[in-house]
Write a structure and sequence with these properties.
Elements: H1 2-16, E1 30-33, E2 43-44, E3 59-63, E4 67-69, E5 74-76, E6 91-92, E7 102-110, E8 116-126, E9 131-134, E10 137-140, E11 147-148, E12 150-153, E13 161-165, E14 179-180, E15 186-193, E16 199-208, H2 213-219, E17 222-226, E18 238-244, E19 249-254
Parallel strand pairs: 1-8, 10-16
Antiparallel strand pairs: 2-6, 3-7, 4-5, 7-8, 9-12, 11-14, 13-15, 15-16, 17-18, 18-19
């Protein structure tokens, strides 16, 4: 009997150090926005972790690779980023100090029967996001003429969403390259958002050739007033020349 008991005890010790099959239910690696205020933080980690062949109750432990922070004068571990490292689904509330713009989090789940397994979840931080609106000083020679607002995306993680404003004389405010056909000069603004929540904004000016004197007066800006010798005049009497930013010159004789 003593021999049988010893064999059973040895068997229990072996099982207590055994590894279970890999955890399932963990989400795919993800990327979050590195710009404050433009990210989905806080986010919940872990998905639905399950220990195959494990027996409940389970214990959970999240960890990261330690690294020294000169700014904090201490080693930073998972507790710096997560609200509780012993939960199956802790909350990530900080993106600070992600070395190399990427961080690996390790979840070790252990069953009551001693079986355990570790899985990895990686988070990358997007620090650069920009785009260009090409040829965005467009001239239309007649009201109602059509132009395309071209967008060149250089960074970010797709899919993207688009929001053009104002919703005036535009084919679709939620597409990358809409058609526009304004009756008068207008500035369109695009807010581009990528899948991480990062945003970038830019303007596109569409100039429509004015047809009336009133529209011309409204669009041009006075640069300076000069006298007959070409010297800038502060006086508002006599023969004066009004020079505008569109290249036109208007002659005025002002009599007190």
């Amino acid at each position: 009997m003593k021999t049988v008991l010893k064999i059973l005890l040895i068997g229990l010790m072996i099982n207590s150090t055994a590894k279970a099959q890999c955890i399932t239910g963990m989400p795919n690696d993800t990327t979050i926005c590195g710009f404050p205020g433009l990210t989905s933080l806080p986010i919940t980690l872990g998905g639905n972790p399950i220990l195959t062949s494990g027996i409940s109750p389970f214990t959970y432990h999240w960890s990261t690779d330690l690294f020294w922070s000169p700014a904090l004068s201490q080693n930073i571990d998972a507790s710096f980023f997560l609200d509780d490292t012993t939960l199956a689904n802790p909350i990530l509330y900080s993106r600070d100090y992600f070395t190399g713009n990427e961080k690996d989090f390790y979840l070790t789940i252990t069953g009551a029967n001693g079986l355990s397994c570790t899985d990895t979840f990686s988070i990358s931080v997007l620090l650069n996001f920009s785009y260009n609106l090409l040829e965005c000083e467009i001239i239309l020679y007649n009201p109602g003429d059509t132009a395309v607002l071209w967008t060149n995306i250089m960074d970010g993680i797709p899919p993207f969403t688009y929001s053009w404003s104002p919703p005036i004389s535009i084919s679709n405010v939620n597409t990358v390259n809409p058609l526009v056909y304004p009756d008068s000069s207008i500035t369109y603004n695009l807010i581009l958002t990528d899948s991480t929540g990062c945003q970038a904004s830019s303007d596109c000016f569409v100039y429509v050739n004015p047809l009336t004197v009133e529209e011309i007066e409204h669009n041009k800006q006075l640069l300076k007033i000069v006298d007959i010798l070409g010297k800038e005049s502060k006086s508002k009497k006599g023969l004066l020349f009004y020079i505008y930013d569109d290249g036109t010159v208007e002659k005025k004789i002002i009599i007190d």
